[in-house]
């Protein structure tokens, strides 16, 4: 069995809110069984902590840049979690999201 961490620990390590994690798990953005949700302890594979941190950082950076969105579409978040070290998603009309992640930070350019 692979190592798991509690949702509270994931929130502490990544800056995600519990509501974010709950939504991402129940909608399949974070891989794995979604679990029943409210009132039950959720655990998340430990190897997803850094990809989740990257997704949170990119979402926060995009939101902070004032793009008029309160968050990223779930398919974009899922792509970031699948490719936490960096990548680029073309959104069309010359707009793209590019992210790079190192040990200390995540940055988004939109």
Key terms:
110 residues, alpha+beta, three-stranded antiparallel sheet, two-stranded antiparallel ribbon, 38% helix, 22% strand, globular
Could you walk me through the main structural features you see in this protein, from its secondary elements to its overall organization?
The protein is α+β, with helices and mostly antiparallel strands. It contains four helices and five strands. It is 38% helix and 22% strand. The chain has one domain.
Question: Secondary structure elements and their pairing?
Answer:
Layout: E1 4-6, H1 7-14, H2 18-26, E2 43-45, H3 49-64, H4 74-82, E3 86-92, E4 95-101, E5 106-109
Characterize the overall form. globular
The fraction of residues assigned to DSSP E strands is: 15-25%
Radius of gyration: 14 Å
- Strand segment tally: 5
**Strand-pairing-aware structural class:** alpha+beta
């Amino acid at each position: 069995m692979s190592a798991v961490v509690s949702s509270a620990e994931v929130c502490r390590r990544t800056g995600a809110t519990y509501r974010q994690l709950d939504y991402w798990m129940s909608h399949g953005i974070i891989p794995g069984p979604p679990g029943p949700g409210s009132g039950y302890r959720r655990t998340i594979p430990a190897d997803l902590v850094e990809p989740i941190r990257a997704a949170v950082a990119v979402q926060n950076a995009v939101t902070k840049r004032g793009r008029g969105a309160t968050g990223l579409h779930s398919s974009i978040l899922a792509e970031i979690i699948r490719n936490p070290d960096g990548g680029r998603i073309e959104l069309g009309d010359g707009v793209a999201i590019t992210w790079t992640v190192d040990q200390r930070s995540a940055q988004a350019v939109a």
